[in-house]
Amino acid sequence: MQNGKILIVEDQPNFRRGLVKLIEDGQHGWHVAGEAANGSEALDMLDCLQPDLVLTDIRMPKMNGIDFIAELRQRYPDMLFIFLTAYRSFDYAQSAVKMGALDYLVKPCTEEDVRKVLAKASSWFREQAEQRRNDMLRLRREQAQALRCVLLNLPCEQEMTAVLDEALCGKELWLLRLGWEADPNLIAGQQDIEARHAAVFGNLEQRLYQADPASLLVAVEHSRLLVAAEAELDEASVSEAIRCSLDPFPDISFRLMRMGSAPQAKHMAGIYTRMNKMAELEEAGHKKAGQEAHVPADAVIDPERVRDLEVRISGILSLGQMDRLRHFLEDLTVPIAGMKPRERSAYAAAVCAALQSVRRQLGIQGAGQTVTDPSALLPPAQGESATIRWVKDRTERFLHDYRSWREAAHSGSLLDKALAYIGERYMGDCRLADAAAHVRLNPSYFSVWFKKETGESFTRCLTRLRMEKAAELLRHTDMKISEIAITVGYNEPNYFTNAFRQFYRQSPKEWRSAFGR
């Protein structure tokens, strides 16, 4: 991680030069971005320098340190600052603490004093930078998941669609379709395929981030991805980033299709569907006349068909519509009529694979089998009637096991487990994805299910619990507000104060004064 930028505000030239010389050796995690002789000069430099830390004297001409920091906090409320003073006991010290100073140095101070304060500031700065990075990554993951739900017409919280509309405003959308020249669908190599998919996605995400840090890459379906990038990033740049990311995979081709400026989230599914249909029609036109589009059942399963079925089933489950699920599963036998033997076998095996995938995502136990070899489950020579019976048997098993699982979930056992997890982890890094994994649910399904069961979103529930715990500590203890912030899961006291004020319409200090013991 690069050293942080520091601005030194000190009216005594010799002392200021001494600080610069001490800091510039690079051993303390900082480099001097600028110097100022008073608060007025420093204010003029803030917007240009954008420092990470301000080291400022209090007693200065024109504008003292207290007034300077008060103005700084208006512009940059999260910026770190340290006060310098020539007095050990003075009224300014109380103001410094109230204003949120990380620390203060009493002049004259030794090099060791300065090193300790800078080391403390560096540790805080790096922790906050890591926290911001993690928050940014988490937000990107949530945005990608929400965008995937929107594109596939799956349930998505309204607050997330609003976040999407804001995040995608002004961006261009691109549909990326990957083609595998070698056959990647062999069942025996499924783990290798998933590893290759992950590697391709990771390479592509990194390249796009280098070209546009605000870009967003979403794996929508098998071999179908969506790229959201700034309008300034032209097609040549996007194509180059994709081409470079696919260099280690010479057997993978790609097609990039511009979808245009990002519309509102509610319109994206229709555009995505039309673009894919257009691409499929064009690709079908290039196939040789008479070529049959079937999958040998004794060797492979079509992963796109599996993924399509999985998405459709998961969407219905997210809505909790049992009648719709039953009708959908019953209708899965309809396409079998008229299929050729090998295509029929491949379709049946794909249905079974999709059901198994949904079972794994939700943690549904039951009598279903794991697909490892379609020829063992359904011989290619099996007739049409037998195939229909075989598929019907699998779908009925799934429906039975899902009903049992759903009854257990509605009985409170899963919800109690999820709430207990939040209650145990709220004071640290408590994420929706981890809570979903704890109860063995898919994150997107968990999000919808949790809100339906509790009446509030996961984030709202976590925030409420943290605020209630904080209020208890404010009322019944003498702990410092910064200590309470850390205790209830906030590393940054200022962020905690803002969250508390939004929740209770009072600052922690005001709340303690009104309700404390």
From TrEMBL:
InterPro entries for this protein: CheY-like_superfamily, Homeodomain-like_sf, HTH_AraC, HTH_AraC-typ_CS, Sig_transdc_resp-reg_receiver, Tscrpt_reg_AraC-type_HTH
Domain Response regulatory intervals: 5-122
Chain positions with 4-aspartylphosphate modification: D57
Keyword tags: DNA-binding, Phosphoprotein, Transcription, Transcription regulation
Cell inner membrane found in the keyword field: no
Protein origin, superkingdom: Bacteria
All residue ranges annotated as the HTH araC/xylS-type domain in the record: 416-514
Protein's name according to its UniProt entry: Response regulator
